[in-house]
């Protein structure tokens, strides 16, 4: 295989987005995502509905990714797919399709850890975006995960801090539900926080040892706060929604940055990268940039489309593994609780 013509198809189906991307020598040629709007009706992802939607979407999404990339399936060098973690039914759809396609084309099959992919999205060849040097600290924040990871090289990663209960994305969504906001609530809270007063209401931060996180206590504190204030004023939420959102976001950002500051101090690492769907939050991005002047960090924030669940990040991991000839077999199985 000519090293200048490595085409990898990446497939992502860990939760409720069906995605496919084609990468050529580290540069993304296409990145197609089919969102599943049906879950908005239920205020969260319904696993059975998600897996059914993946079955409907995966063929047209892959077809569109190949067409946009301007190649045929016969030009592919390998197929990379999300092995885990994620919803088992959703993972099985992507895994089965990837195995079948790779077998039919007689090309290598590459399994990818979804959380590693969020971190390695920083290594996509994208103009205007620098790649972090090793070692660096990565904070992966999403609807299902909150972790601080020490990254020694592409595939040598150590989780040094993680949530002991809710993930940060859940904290946003559950808080939003209490306020009557739709699902997902994170983007709406972020939007309202920009025009609200972040210090209007004070919420206590959970005390957790080491570099671990906890968000369930914050959710409970917000619940009691809302119940108390609404009892005194039935229109409290409506009259103060922007300030409430700003105060919630300010508290969550404070929890994240305090732990990151502690991790940087303990490891003496000043290169900080973020990834995962919640890293699209403008307040978190700004706080990270502010850390450059406050703490002497050099920060790395991926291109917006590579933050939420997408197949470009699966494709870049596939490309890096392809260079190492790190392939899997047709016996590979999806793993809902796969660890870094």
Word description of this protein:
The chain has 340 residues and is an alpha/beta fold. Helix content is 42%, strand content 18%. The protein is built from 9 helices and 10 strands. It has helices at 47-69, 88-105, 114-120, 168-178, 186-193, 216-232, 236-267, 282-295, 312-323; strands at 7-12, 18-24, 27-34, 78-84, 109-113, 136-141, 146-153, 156-162, 271-275, 298-300. A 5-stranded mixed beta sheet has the order 3-2-1-4-5, with helices on both faces. Helix 1 packs parallel to helix 2, helix 3 (114-120) packs across helix 9 and helix 5 (186-193) packs across helix 7 (236-267). The protein is globular. The two termini are 30 Å apart. The model has no long low-confidence stretch (mean pLDDT 93).
Structural features:
alpha/beta, 5-stranded mixed β-sheet
Shape call? globular
How many beta-strand elements?
10
Please give the order of strands in the largest beta sheet.
3-2-1-4-5
Briefly note the structural class of the backbone. alpha/beta
List SSEs in N-to-C order.
EEEHEHEHEEEHHHHEHEH
Q: Please, what is the average pLDDT?
A: 93
* Number of discrete helical segments: 9
**What would you report as the Rg, rounded to the nearest angstrom?**
20 Å
Largest sheet: 5 strands, mixed
Distance between the termini: 30 Å
Percent in helix: 40-55%
Instruction: Flag low-confidence runs.
Output: none
Strand content is: 15-25%
Topology:
Layout: E1 7-12, E2 18-24, E3 27-34, H1 47-69, E4 78-84, H2 88-105, E5 109-113, H3 114-120, E6 136-141, E7 146-153, E8 156-162, H4 168-178, H5 186-193, H6 216-232, H7 236-267, E9 271-275, H8 282-295, E10 298-300, H9 312-323
Parallel strand pairs: 1-4, 4-5, 6-9, 9-10
Antiparallel strand pairs: 1-2, 2-3, 6-7, 7-8
Helix pairs in contact: 1-2, 3-9, 4-6, 4-7, 5-7, 7-8
């Amino acid at each position: 295989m000519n090293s200048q013509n490595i085409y990898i198809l990446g497939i992502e189906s860990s939760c409720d987005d069906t995605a496919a991307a084609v990468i050529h020598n580290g540069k993304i040629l296409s990145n197609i995502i089919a969102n599943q709007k049906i879950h908005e009706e239920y205020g969260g992802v319904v696993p059975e509905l998600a897996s059914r939607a993946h079955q409907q979407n995966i063929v047209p999404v892959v077809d569109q990714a190949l067409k946009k990339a301007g190649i045929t399936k016969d030009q592919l060098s390998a197929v990379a797919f999300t092995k885990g973690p994620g919803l088992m039914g959703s993972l099985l759809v992507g895994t089965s399709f990837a195995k079948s396609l790779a077998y039919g084309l007689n090309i290598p099959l590459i399994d990818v850890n979804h959380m590693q992919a969020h971190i390695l999205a920083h290594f996509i060849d994208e103009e205007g975006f620098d790649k972090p040097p090793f070692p660096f600290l990565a904070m992966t924040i999403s609807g299902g995960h909150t972790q601080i990871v020490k990254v020694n090289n592409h595939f040598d990663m150590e989780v040094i801090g993680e949530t002991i209960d809710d993930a940060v994305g859940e904290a946003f969504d559950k808080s939003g539900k209490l306020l009557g906001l739709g699902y997902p609530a994170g983007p709406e809270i972020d939007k309202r926080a920009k025009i609200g007063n972040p210090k209007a209401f004070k919420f206590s931060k959970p005390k957790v040892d080491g570099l671990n996180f906890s968000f369930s206590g914050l959710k409970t504190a917000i619940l009691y706060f809302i119940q108390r204030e609404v009892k005194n004023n039935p229109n409290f939420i409506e009259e103060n929604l922007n300030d409430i959102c700003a105060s919630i976001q300010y508290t969550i950002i404070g929890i994240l940055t305090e732990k990151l500051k502690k991790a940087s101090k303990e490891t003496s690492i000043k290169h900080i990268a973020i990834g995962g769907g919640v890293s699209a939050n403008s307040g978190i991005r700004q706080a990270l940039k502010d850390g450059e002047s406050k703490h002497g960090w050099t920060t790395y924030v991926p291109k917006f489309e590579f933050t939420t669940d997408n197949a470009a990040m699966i494709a870049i991991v596939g490309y890096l593994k392809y260079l190492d000839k790190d392939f899997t077999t047709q016996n590979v199985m999806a793993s809902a609780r796969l660890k870094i």
